[in-house]
Amino acid sequence: MTESLSTHRPVTKAGVFVVIGAVLCMLLSGCGEGPSSSSENQADATSGRRAPVQTLPPIRVTPGILNWGDVLPGSSSDGSVALTNLGTEPLKIITVQPGCKCTTTSGLDGITIPVGESRDLVASLDAQPAPGTRNVQIKVLFEGYAKPLEINGTAVVTRPVRVRPPYINAVDETKHTGTLMLNAGDRIPFKVLSVDGKPPRFVRKEMAQDARVNHIISYDINDHLEPDGRFRRWVVVETDHPGAPLLEVLLRHRNSSLDVNSSFKQGSYHFNMGRLAPGSSMELKHLTHEATTTGPVGMVVAEQEGIEIEILSEEIDDETDDLSLKLLVTVSPDMPEGFYYFPVRLYAGNGSEAILPGFVSVRPDPDPNSTRAPEAPTEKRIQR
Predict the structure, then answer these.
(1) What are 220-232's pLDDT values in tens digits?
(2) Rounded to an integer, what distance in angstroms lies between the CA atom of residue 56 and that of residue 17?
(3) How far is CA 182 from the centre of its chain?
(4) Are 248 and 342 members of one domain?
(5) Which H or E run includes 217?
(6) How far is residue 119 from each of residues 58, 81, 83, 233, measured CA to CA in Å?
């Protein structure tokens, strides 16, 4: 009997502890999934918060794409789209996040869009120095929605005279000849003066001396071979157009790549100095990346007699770590007229060096009294 009592005593104590624990849980309401979930729901109801919806916010974007259109290289341009609330509740914008350092927005963080109303999203694009297409994406995050609204933006960075195709594809070495079409979007007639300083080859020779809105010229990449056996990275078309004196066309070939220093990153890998009269100067902007690593740029040297480059100022963007250079390019008064293509050396504070191609058209200033008016577009008759 004694064994029996001693055997059942522990079980009896355990049962007592279980009962006591259950009672305490009920009194404190702190145990089990049911009381916990109820408590959390009450907290959500008190705070007014809800779990983010796993869908896109009910927003209409007008127009569907933010199109900056044609933008001059190195310039800034503003564009906008309208955001319209198609839902049944006001929508609050938490933040607007451009996907590229070249794009900035302002004024919409924390803004609430009432039901049925619209707000404009204005974005500024800083175009790259080289012509080409720029595509960016802007994300807008709304309160209560897990998925951000994505807005696509596009721009064509081009000079008033556009070149088609925008680059020469000579990766396949069997394709070393072709044609380039030049078109003035502003309808101002112009002449082609040279291609890399050499007389241009016109497809229609009878139009060679005419100032026209359109030109078609042919090329052979062997005309752009350097003494070291490498091709020039850029084929440069020189014109007398007031807004497009030099048109750079990228030459893609396995022997045209630049010998660049990976520790000295540039915003642009060439210097287009445009048209300068003998004895004149112009300001030029240039960007380098990772300024805290490379340090300030100590010197910029043009390896061309008669061309001097002076650093006017340097400014670091603390957010992007980019260094903006403002340069002064000066042409000697006795420098002969013509087209010049030459190396430009940059020296950074950490000892890094970059050698980039630079080009300039040394010509007298155009006569202001001989300004050409834009041509009217030619009407095309419909054949019936």
Answers:
(1) 999 999 998 899 9
(2) 52
(3) 24
(4) no
(5) strand 214-220
(6) 14, 9, 5, 45
Residue 378 lies in a domain: no
Measure CA 207 to chain center.
Answer: 37
Q: What is the mean pLDDT of residues 212-217?
A: 94
Structure letter (DSSP) for residue 297: E
Tell whether 92 and 137 lie within a shared domain.
Answer: yes
**Residue range 158-205, pLDDT digits in tens:** 889 999 998 999 987 778 899 999 999 999 999 999 999 999 999 877
Q: Indicate if 121 and 78 belong to the same structural domain.
A: yes
Residue 363 tokens, joined: 């010509």
Helix, strand, coil content of the chain in percent (nearest 5): 15, 45, 40
Cα torsion through 24, 25, 26, 29, rounded to 10: 120
- Can you tell me the distance from the alpha carbon of 313 to that of 214, in angstroms, rounded to the nearest whole number? 40
List the structure tokens of 177: 């000849």
* CB-CB neighbours of 119 under 10 Å: 18
Tell whether the model's pLDDT for residue 42 goes beyond 90. Answer: no
Q: What is the CATH number of the domain that holds 312?
A: 2.60.40.10
Listed ranges 13-22, 59-68, 286-295; the one with the highest mean pLDDT: 59-68
Can you give the C-alpha Rg of the chain in angstroms? 33
Under a CB-based contact definition with an 8 Å cutoff, are residues 237 and 378 in contact?
A: no
Structural domain count, the chain? 3
- 3-class DSSP state for residue 26? helix
- pLDDT (mean) for 351-372: 85
State the amino acid at position 200 in one-letter form: P
Name, in order, each residue with C-beta under 8 angstroms of 37's C-beta and a sequence gap of 6 or more.
none
Residue 156, number of CB atoms within 10 A of its CB: 17
d(CA 70, CA 36): 59
Q: Is the pLDDT of residue 116 over 60?
A: yes
